[in-house]
């Protein structure tokens, strides 16, 4: 159905172009056959005979160019709107799937806890799994809310100086346990004492999305590496994994809202298409930049964030 609708739009566009060209041809024929009338008009305007012919023909060409431009622009806008609508539909389907998975797991382990002969070890394991899935759902809902707030946000973040050594010392200790629960090891290297203008919540949300993304695309037994170090005038945060990688042609699109990686990768995990767009938006609001690096045919993706250092007031 989607392809049929696209074919109808393209057919309409082609027919409109043919009609525009036909009108131009008719205009040229009229200008040629009406040479005497045009010369008469030129004489009334005090112009020599034949001086208006090129003006008339040029006017027709300009009109044709404007029509073609308008039709092409309208075609591009139509396909852009259809693509965005399709991404929204895919987002609703994916977020429904993402919510159903932890809900089903929570229900299963809650039913397990109802068993009378359950050992203490199994009891603790089920409780831990329920808490883990509830946290996953909470992060998912937070991402949806944050994405909505970013689209309609009128004012910027209330930035304040954040000491990165203190922030990351606490953050890595918490994130390491979460990553380990997926069978992946988090290795970190912290070599900065600088401050950046940010908020604790924004930094945490950026790191959660990057590390969760790296974890989900890594194989069990793999590792996620995070390095925080000083650069001239900035602090660089790097998150790297050994996962399946991202095709080079998609690297410039992965920060778009609702955008999802191609089938060769997204078959591993649907996701919502919000995480990296939130990362990009929050980093921009913190006056920084974020980039992604990956090589076709080679495993691993590296995300690099540069945040300007906070100015030290004397």
Describe the structure.
By secondary structure, this protein is an alpha+beta fold. The chain folds into three domains: 2-86; 98-152, no CATH class; 160-308, 2-Layer Sandwich (Heat Shock Protein 90). It is 59% helix and 14% strand. It is built from eight helices and seven strands, in the order H-H-H-H-E-H-E-E-H-E-E-H-H-E-E. It has helices at 2-33, 35-44, 53-113, 120-152, 164-180, 200-216, 263-266, 275-285, and strands at residues 160-163, 185-191, 195-198, 223-231, 234-241, 289-293, 302-308. Strands 2-4-5-7-6 form a five-stranded mixed beta sheet. A two-stranded antiparallel ribbon has the order 1-3. Helix 1 packs antiparallel against helix 3 (53-113), helix 3 (53-113) runs antiparallel to helix 4 and helix 6 packs antiparallel against helix 8 (275-285). It is elongated.
Order of adjacent strands in the largest pleated sheet: 2-4-5-7-6
Low-confidence stretches: 263-269
CATH architecture of the largest domain: 2-Layer Sandwich
The name of the CATH superfamily of the largest domain reads Histidine kinase-like ATPase, C-terminal domain
Give the CATH class of the largest domain.
Answer: Alpha Beta
Q: The biggest beta sheet, please? A: 5 strands, mixed
What is the end-to-end distance?
A: 66 Å
Rounded mean pLDDT is 77
Radius of gyration, CA atoms, in whole angstroms: 30 Å
Derived from helix and strand composition plus strand pairing, the structural class reads alpha+beta
- Count of separate structural domains: 3
Say how many strands there are.
Answer: 7
Task: Assess the beta-strand content as a share of residues.
Answer: 5-15%
Gross geometry: elongated
- How do the SSEs run, as a string of H and E? HHHHEHEEHEEHHEE
Number of helices: 8
**What share of residues is helical?**
55-70%
Using the coordinates shown, work out and report the CATH topology of the largest domain: Heat Shock Protein 90
């Amino acid at each position: 159905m989607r392809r049929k609708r696209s074919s109808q739009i393209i057919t309409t566009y082609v027919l409109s172009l043919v009609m525009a060209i036909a009108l131009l041809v008719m205009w040229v024929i009229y200008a040629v056959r009406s040479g005497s009338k045009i010369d008469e008009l030129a004489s009334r305007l005090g112009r020599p005979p034949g001086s208006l012919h090129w003006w008339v023909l040029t006017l027709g060409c300009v009109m044709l160019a404007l029509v073609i431009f308008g039709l092409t622009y309208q075609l591009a806008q139509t396909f852009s709107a259809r693509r965005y609508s399709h991404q929204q539909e895919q987002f609703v389907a994916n977020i429904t799937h993402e919510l159903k998975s932890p809900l089903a797991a929570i229900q299963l382990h809650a039913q397990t806890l109802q068993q009378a002969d359950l050992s203490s070890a199994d009891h603790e394991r089920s409780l831990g799994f329920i808490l883990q899935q509830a946290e996953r759902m909470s992060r998912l809902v937070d991402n949806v809310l944050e994405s909505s707030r970013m689209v309609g946000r009128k004012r910027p973040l209330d930035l304040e100086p954040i000491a990165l050594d203190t922030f990351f010392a606490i953050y890595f200790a918490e994130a390491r346990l979460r990553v380990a629960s997926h069978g992946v090891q988090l290795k970190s290297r912290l070599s900065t004492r600088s401050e950046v203008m940010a908020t604790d919540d924004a930094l945490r949300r950026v790191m959660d999305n990057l590390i969760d993304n790296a974890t989900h695309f890594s194989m069990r037994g793999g590792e996620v590496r995070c390095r925080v170090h000083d650069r001239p005038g900035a602090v660089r945060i790097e998150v790297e994994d050994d996962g399946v990688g991202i095709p080079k042609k998609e690297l410039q699109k992965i920060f778009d809202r609702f955008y999802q990686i191609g089938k060769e990768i997204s078959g591993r995990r649907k996701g919502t298409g919000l995480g990296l767009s939130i990362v990009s938006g929050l980093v921009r609001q913190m006056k920084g930049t974020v980039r992604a690096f990956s090589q076709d045919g080679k495993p691993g993706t590296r995300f690099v964030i540069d945040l300007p250092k906070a100015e030290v007031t004397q």
